[in-house]
Amino acid sequence: MSESASAPPGLPPRSPMLWAFMARQFTSYLRRNMNALRVARWGELDAPDAPLVVYSNHPSWWDAALFIVLGKELLPSRASYAPIDAKMLEKYKFFGRIGAFGLDLESRRGAVNFLHQASAILASPERALWITAQGTFKDVRERPIELRPGVAHLAERVPDASFVPLAIDYCFWSERGAEALVAFGRPIPGRELTALPRNGRLAVLEQALTDTMNRLAGDAISRDPARFRPIVEGRQGIGGIYDLWRGARARLRGERFQPGHLEQRP
Closest by alpha carbon to 97, among 27, 22, 8? Predict the structure, then answer.
């Protein structure tokens, strides 16, 4: 489902046409600048028929681009939204037309506004809210994982929503471009969270994300592409004159030119 820029009251503006355009642009940008975006085979998104809160760690500027591409590829029938630092929204205003809404990270009023807008978004099972729940950039190896409390407060506002941990990792393997690796954890029903004491809900969300990140880290260390399904693949090899020469040499020898360093690409 797509929603127009003239959204219902409480919803951030979202132009389906502009969102689709930006999704294509970020997909192309990933292809040019990354070796691949891969999802762990054990960590595919299993989205229930409910409003969805995808909450993640926040290792890089790239996370916002990944949200848009993952939304396009994995949740094409849902309208995706995301909070963004209000200062960054001032700098990148186009995000405000594709479902992003400003978030004041330092004030109580900002937290209240977040809950109000997030609740409006999650009133429909045809929408998804993507949150970098650590709030600020954090190294992927940092432990313990500490999330901002707003994501736990959402469960009380929207108990019908499901909360899905998303682990994000970036690393270099055998190619010049980096690998963007992701894995989704088990969806946690909002009512499962609201059945817990208030002071225990955030800990459950943090532990679920930590477990997902730890398992993804093991796959990243393995450097084994077979453990992943590629979502977006970039251009392998060094490029330029050197790869033209390598390709010509392979053809003269009657061989298939393999631009990457690995023998074959899964």
Answer: 22
In this prediction, residue 202 carries a pLDDT of 97
* Closest CA relative to residue 51, chosen from 82, 93, 79, 74: 79
Q: Residue 263: what pLDDT? A: 53
For residue range 89-112, what is the model confidence (pLDDT) as tens digits? 888 888 899 999 988 877 778 788
3-state secondary structure the chain: CCCCCCCCCCCCCECHHHHHHHHHHHHHHHHHHEEEEEEEHHHCCCCCCCCEEEEECCCCCHHHHHHHHHHHHHCCCCEEEEEEEHHHHHHCHHHHHECEEEECCCCHHHHHHHHHHHHHHCCCCCEEEEEECCCCCCCCCCCCCCCCCHHHHHHHHCCCCEEEEEEEEEECCCCCCEEEEEEECCCEEHHHHHCCCHHHHHHHHHHHHHHHHHHHHHHHHHCCHHHEEEEEECCCCCCHHHHHHHHHHHHHCCCCCCCCCCCCCC
The pLDDT tens digits for 158-168 are 999 999 999 99
Residues of the chain with pLDDT under 50: 1-2, 5-6, 239-243, 245-247, 250, 257, 264-266
Q: Which domains does the chain show, CATH number per domain?
A: 16-235 (3.40.1130.10), 237-266 (no CATH)
